[in-house]
Specification:
This protein has about 120 residues and is mainly beta. It is built from 1 helix and 10 strands.
């Protein structure tokens, strides 16, 4: 098996591919075999109303995958409260509020891949 990471329409997927020989391929090509069901569509980032950005932007310190969102728009947070959990290099990194405020926007969704410097969420202080 080989593992690959592919991106389709901006959504990243991790897949496993197994190489089979010609003999094995003719044995498994029977018409009774059904195609696998399509994967469930990935969740898109939440839509934001124009002007919904807060005055404090919190960015990703490194590239990684969003594995949890711990706060919602409108929630009041204190400096250091965890808002987003980012997985990078097989470690979970808690990204917290940089100051006291109210969450103005959450710019990511669970499963999103982000680059270093991407805005994860914004606050109004």
């Amino acid at each position: 098996m080989k593992n690959y990471r592919i991106t389709v329409n901006g959504v990243e997927y991790e897949v496993q591919v197994e190489e089979i020989g010609a003999e094995e391929m003719t044995q498994t090509a029977a018409p009774a075999r059904k195609a696998a069901a399509p994967a469930a569509p990935a969740k898109k980032a939440p839509a934001k109303a124009a002007g919904a950005e807060g005055n404090v932007k919190v960015t990703s310190p490194m590239p990684g995958k969003i594995v949890a969102i711990k706060a919602n728009v409108g929630d009041t947070v204190k400096k250091g409260d965890v808002v987003v959990v980012l997985e990078a290099m097989k470690m979970e990194n808690e990204i917290g509020a940089t100051e006291d405020g109210v969450i103005a926007s959450v710019n990511v969704a669970n499963g999103d891949m982000v680059e270093s410097g991407a805005v994860l969420f914004t606050l109004n202080n």
